[in-house]
């Protein structure tokens, strides 16, 4: 199965999501979206495919969100997308796309909605929270 993850290696949620994909026996295409951000059109398509609004795909924590005044409800989606492309740290992560769909994987186990049931064994997140049991079935 083909999978793409828009990944930030410094993010625990992103690392857990990547590990869950690999636990399902899939080696995804990993896009370091900070170094290689999606185009405005690609970002718009990811957000739409995930069933989100542009505003819900914005990351606030540890970003220039407040300094840029992006909390202003009068800002259009086009303006927000322009900021997200110019400052990719504003893109919430990780987005994952597979033939089964696209999701913003927060929390990381959201990725299980778009993965086959092919887990190679148990899985626990970095904090120890178990997500996949010994039988390869989802616990959460």
Layout of helices and strands, plus pairs?
Layout: E1 4-7, H1 12-23, E2 29-32, H2 40-49, H3 77-86, E3 95-98, E4 101-104, E5 123-124, E6 130-132
Parallel strand pairs: 1-2
Antiparallel strand pairs: 1-3, 3-4, 5-6
Structure commentary:
By secondary structure, the chain is α+β, with helices and mostly antiparallel strands. The chain has a single domain, classed as Glutaredoxin (3-Layer(aba) Sandwich). Helix 1 links the parallel strand 1 and strand 2. The longest helix has 12 residues. The radius of gyration is 16 Å and the shape is elongated. It starts with a strand and ends in an 8-residue tail after the last strand.
Number of strands: 6
Poorly predicted runs: none
Helices and strands: which structural class? alpha+beta
Radius of gyration: 16 Å
Shape: elongated
Supply the CATH architecture: 3-Layer(aba) Sandwich
Class in CATH?
A: Alpha Beta
Beta-strand residue fraction: 15-25%
In short:
With 140 residues, the chain is of the alpha+beta class.
For the structure shown, list the relevant keywords:
140 residues; two-stranded antiparallel sheet; 4-stranded mixed β-sheet; elongated; 3 helices; 6 strands
């Amino acid at each position: 199965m083909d999978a793409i993850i828009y990944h930030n290696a410094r993010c625990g949620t992103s690392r857990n999501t990547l590990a869950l994909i690999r636990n399902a026996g899939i080696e995804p295409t990993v896009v370091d979206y900070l170094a290689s951000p999606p185009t405005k059109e690609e970002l718009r398509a990811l957000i739409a495919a995930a069933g989100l609004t542009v505003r819900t795909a914005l990351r606030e924590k540890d970003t220039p969100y407040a300094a840029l005044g992006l909390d202003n409800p009068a800002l259009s989606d086009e303006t927000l997308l322009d900021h997200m492309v110019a400052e990719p740290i504003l893109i919430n992560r990780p987005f994952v796309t597979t033939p089964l769909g696209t999701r913003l994987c927060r929390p990381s186990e959201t990725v299980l909605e778009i993965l086959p049931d092919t887990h190679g064994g148990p899985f626990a997140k970095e904090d120890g929270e178990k997500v996949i049991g010994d039988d390869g079935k989802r616990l959460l």
